[in-house]
Structures are given as structure tokens and as C-alpha cells.
Amino acid sequence: MIERRDFRGLAAAAGLAAVLGAGAGQAAAAGPTVVELNQTACQFVESENGIDHGYTSSVKADCEAINAKSGAERLASAKVLKLKPGKHVFRVTNRNVTYPLGFWLRGDGLVNRATLPSVSGGGLTTGATKDYAIDLKPGTYVYSCPLNPTPDYKIVVEG
Length: 159
Hints:
By secondary structure, this protein is of the alpha+beta class.
């Protein structure tokens, strides 16, 4: 049986309102907008509407199998982050995955990948948090973790 954990309160406490557009203009004037993201096995919690599906994974292949079965359906109902252009910091935390994770944000599709900025990195051990700074330009992006394979969650930057 899969246990579902709800991180909605955590997301709210972490400033997810800025991600959804509330106060993003004020945040830009004071510095970069911080986007908090929590990784659990095979997913980013905030992207899946605050629901931790309770997956377990000890190796990359576990997530590949889980996402082959449920990834497309979960992605269809995933939250599209809407951000303003400008400086952002994606603060990513490995909540409970026993192997090191990473983060990769890039343009969606070949043209956007070639023309839009990207940021990536790894080394997120269990409980660790890392910041990934980027100056987002208008366009459509995706983000994921290639080490803890997750779906490609979408970000739209406009305004």
C-alpha cells in the first residue's frame, strides 16, 4: 500500500506563494525570487500539488519503473509554475531519498534548450538543500532530476 504524505503546509511555509505569482513583483525588487522544491523518491512534491506519493527507491531504475507506469498521468495533473522573468533561486531539498540527487532546469524542447538559460547540479544527499541560481528569460522551461528520475515538470516565464 502506498502511503501519501501531504506537504501543502510545508510548501506554503516555504514561500510557494512567490512561485504562484503572489508578491513576485515585490520579491524581484528585494532580490531573487526563491522557489522551494522538495524531492522525494521519483518526484518533486510541490509540482504534484503538494502530494508525496510515498514512493520508495534505492536506485535510479526504481524511479524509471515507477514513472513508466504513472509519470504521464501525474504530469498531466501537475502544477505548471508561472514565474516572472528575472533572477530566481531554486532551493531544492532531498527529503528522504537515500542516494544523492540533482536538479536540472532547461528550456522545453530543442529550440528553447538552445536559446534559454539553464542550471544544473548534483550532490544532494539525504536531508541536504542546495540553491540553484538562474536569470530566467521569457519562455517555457522544464525541470527534473536525472539522478532520481522525475517527470519533466513545466515552468512558464512571462510578463
